[in-house]
Every structure is written in structure tokens, then in C-alpha cells.
Specification:
Blueprint: H1 9-28, H2 39-46, E1 64-70, E2 73-81, E3 86-88, E4 91-92, H3 93-96, H4 100-112, E5 119-126, H5 130-148, H6 153-159
Parallel strand pairs: 3-5
Antiparallel strand pairs: 1-2, 2-5, 3-4
Helix pairs in contact: 4-5
Length: 188
Amino acid sequence: MGDKEIKSLEELGKATAAAETATKDDAQAPAEGEAAITEEAATTQSEQPAAPVYVQKLDAQGRAYATGKRKNAIARVWIKPGNGKITVNGREFKTYFARPVLQLVIHQPILAAERKDQYDIVCTVKGGGLSGQAGAVRHGVSKALTYFEPDLRGVLKKGGFLTRDSRVVERKKYGKAKARKSFQFSKR
């Protein structure tokens, strides 16, 4: 189309038709030293969606907020630059999650992103047991890290920290003692 200025829809239609015929002619007649591009390959190349651009999401206080979930536990997580202090429900996380395994679970996304002692994390968590709550905090910390630093998304995604673990307790069915357990059967 070049430097021409298009003033009406009719001119736009003519210009696009001319451009399409020009690309078809180029595809049919291969250039010297180049293979001809098939029409299918040309359309698939042009139809490739652009990679999504992730932007930083911060609130008025300069914090990144995310919600993490695991089993029946829901964690609300805020991250801001600091010296690595982690607070869960108003208590230090080592007193709230006393088991070392649960403390390790919370630290996993921070260690994977190599951001140890760079962010202060404040979270409130409710529902479920301690294991589910630790998983919810981990999920929330991972999401909040991607909101604060979108470049970390690839590392955290590869580690599986951004995926919500969808396993939940199966519901009890009628006529059963539990979800699948049956009552004792007697033939006579």
C-alpha cells in the first residue's frame, strides 16, 4: 500500500485486495535462491497470536496482592519490598507453621525465584488444616511474586507453583458410610 492515505472503506477494500493478490503472486513465483512459501504456511504465520504481556499490579501502598487456594484453605497474600519477614494471621510464620515441612513449602517459590530476604510477606489464611493452609500460602505467594515482578512468571510456572492444586475431598454419597465405603454386607 505504501505511502498512500486511505480515505474511504472502498479504497481500503481495493488496497487489501491488491495486497492479497501481490502476496499470492509472490508465493507462486519463488524468488531466486528461496523456496516458495505455500499459502497455508503464510496464513499460519500471520495468525499466530502474540505472546501475552504481563504488567506489574500494585495497590496504593505499593504492595502486590494475590489469593491462593488449596483444599478448603484460602490465603490472602500481600508482598512488598523488605527484609524477608513473613507474617501469617498476625503471628510470625514459624510459630504458626511449626512443622519444618510446612515452612519449607512456604519458602519454595521464594527460593525458586531467588528472592530470599527481599520481600516482606503478610498473609491471612482461613479454612482447612495446616497442610492445606501452607499450600494456599505458597500458591498466593507465587501469584503475588508474578504480580510484583512479571519476569518471574516463567520460573514459577516451570516449578508448578502457579497451578492451583485442584484435589479436594470427595463428597459423601447417600447409601454409603463415607464417600466410597459401604456398610457391611450380609448374605443371610
